[in-house]
Design goal:
By secondary structure, this protein is an alpha/beta fold. The chain is built from four helices and nine strands, in the order E-E-H-H-E-H-E-E-E-E-H-E-E.
């Protein structure tokens, strides 16, 4: 299904490193009706899924996650790079297509707010970041209800790295 906002996504060659074509979704965020369309599409899919919280991955996942959590009337947890969260954290390190990275989540993220969560980010590429986030959430006691992405780069097969059986919602597929 084509979405009105697809034409707003801009290809940026050689970013963040030579040979990578970055899919810039910031024009979607700048267009109120397009941004609303994205959040409505996510909310329509997940409204009756029994979610306790949304987990946004740094940094664009925060934007979509906050808007979706607000729309669904549930909380938002954030997964960040090391040293950015102010309290005790859990962490996981993982490999990227051009290096390695670490993600952190507050250690007490799922003590009081519930455990059934939706992971959200802007782009699913190789799947390393989303898979690491899912692993981190599971180690913290969260249950992954699914993952949602604005855009998926199908040729990179990122969803294959997600936990077996994960429900995935993607609004735009790019070959």
């Amino acid at each position: 299904m084509a979405h009105d906002f697809e034409s707003l996504i801009v290809d940026v060659p050689d970013f963040p490193v030579p040979g990578i074509t970055f899919k810039d979704i910031t024009p979607v965020l700048a267009d109120g009706p397009a941004f609303a369309q994205v959040i409505a599409a996510f909310a329509d899919r997940w409204r009756d899924a029994g979610l306790d919280a949304v987990v946004g991955i740094e940094s664009r996942g925060f934007i979509f996650g906050a808007a979706l959590a607000h729309e669904l009337g549930i909380g938002l947890h954030i997964v960040r790079k090391p040293g950015k969260l102010p309290r005790e954290t859990r962490s996981v390190s993982y490999e990227l297509e051009y290096g390695s990275d670490t993600l952190e989540l507050h250690a007490d993220a799922f003590d009081a707010s519930g455990n059934n969560v939706l992971v959200i980010d802007d782009v699913l590429a190789t799947g390393g970041t989303a898979a690491a986030c899912c692993r981190l959430i599971a180690e913290a006691g969260g249950v992954i209800a699914g993952c949602a992405f604005v855009l998926e780069l199908d040729a990179l097969a990122g969803r294959e790295k997600l936990p077996q059986g994960t429900t995935v919602q993607t609004l735009v597929h790019v070959s």
